[in-house]
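Request:
You are asked to prepare a plain-text protein record giving the amino acid sequence and the backbone structure tokens, at your earliest convenience.
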Amino acid sequence: MSPRRREAWPWWLLVLASLAAGIFLRTCQLGSQTLIDDEWHAVRMLIRADMAGIATHFGLADYCIPLTLYYRWLYDLGALSEWQMHLPLLLAGIALLAWAACQRHLAPLPVRAAWVGLLAISPQLVYFSRTARPYALVAVLAPAAILAFREWRSRDRRRWPWALLYIGTTFLAGWLHLLSLVFTLWPFAHYGVLALRDLARGRAQARRELLELIGLGLLTSAPLVAALALPFVNDWGAMAGKSGLDSITPQSLYRTGLMMFGVGAWWLFVPLLALCAVGAWRHARRDRDLVVLVLGMSVVGVSVIAAARPAWIQHAAAMARYAVSVLPFLLLFVAEGLVDLAGRLRSLASAGVAAVLVALVALGPMPGWFLRWPNQYVEHAIFQFDYDERENPYAQLLELGPVSPFYRDLAKQPPGSLTLIETPASFNSNYTPGPWLQAIHRQKLKFALASPVCGVGRWDEYSYLATGTRFRRVVPLGDVFDGATYGARYLVMRLQPWSLPPGLEQAWPDMADCVAKAEAKLGAPVYRDEGIVVFALGGHPPER
């Protein structure tokens, strides 16, 4: 083996280990996850609207138009399930890792290996890859758009494939999430200023470059206008009503930085920020233009979002989602700084980088997600609102209240050995005690739509009349009353709602009447207290 190959193979081993770790973190317990919070926006929209209605509206509660169209197609086929909803984002998350590993022109192998490692273990990117929202797709499309624009501008021949790639990725990212456009369109301003400067200096090609930028801008805007004009017209009032509401603060900006670097403490954030600064400086020695472009894109993009003052922007989790377009570049610069630091170890540099990656995982939030088993609530705000428990209201304002002895008795059984069906059940982080109760009883959960057997009301996340869903975690209560068990041992009927903080209660069915119907169908309950009534379900086939 040549000396060059001997030096390269540890870094390639790190790339492969990072890819494996990234895939594991994105798939661990994913099949059992419960849809929660904003993931339900698309489901509710696709049930009440056809393809045309979905494509021409943003909706009062934001849903992603192209993802919802895909979900509606699955719904029409009778195949809409949690797994199908998560699949495009999972593939996007894995594609980002593979894409970064292939960017030979962007960084040397050691930096790419560290970059893939940081992308693989980034809590934000892991989370985005596991949730049925568009951010994982934006995370790969936006950087691809930026680099495609640079390739188009720098090449003298065969530039049109790069122009088409830029147009396509910018359009898809913008259609998926509007705020991605404040980042992906920034190269027009960046290179436009350079062209105007060259024009003022009398550079011969400056006028042609300006005309090319204008031409590419028109070609880029055409599909965006075609896809977004009608939604803007139809829902302009709703869109305008969501701006000018909340503001970024210095504290929220700092906490956004913590989330983007995947840590919850300042003593981890400061070294990572220093590595990012060193890495940006080192990368600028090879490619100053990219560093200036990313810096301008980041500052202007965040400033535009801050000026719009969208709802909930004062929360770090919201700003971190909106700024996902720049996250891969920030981690690239951290990788540069990390490799520079590890280079002092010489032949052990790759081992040093690997040790830092392992330490970041151990000191970050993900052990709290995955060391709980089973944990069907990884996307819940208790895990995703803030990585510092002291700053997370879902940890600090929690009032779980009395815990039924039934749940504590379940903990005596092997973890994950039993399945419960609970009803009624909310899938809003503010209204479900699920993560805390599951940490106590350590068993698997499914949920039943209480309508129509317990009346029809707001207690279900979507209509019981939906015919195209094949959700594995949400089942009709009527089927359970008719003898279906869905692999569960017990039906747990919750007699009153739970909220966090107190006072935010939803409508709840008449549970006395509902329990009476259950008794008529299933026989006497096996457990009853002030909070729950439990029925045994006959037959225990294996989990689907």
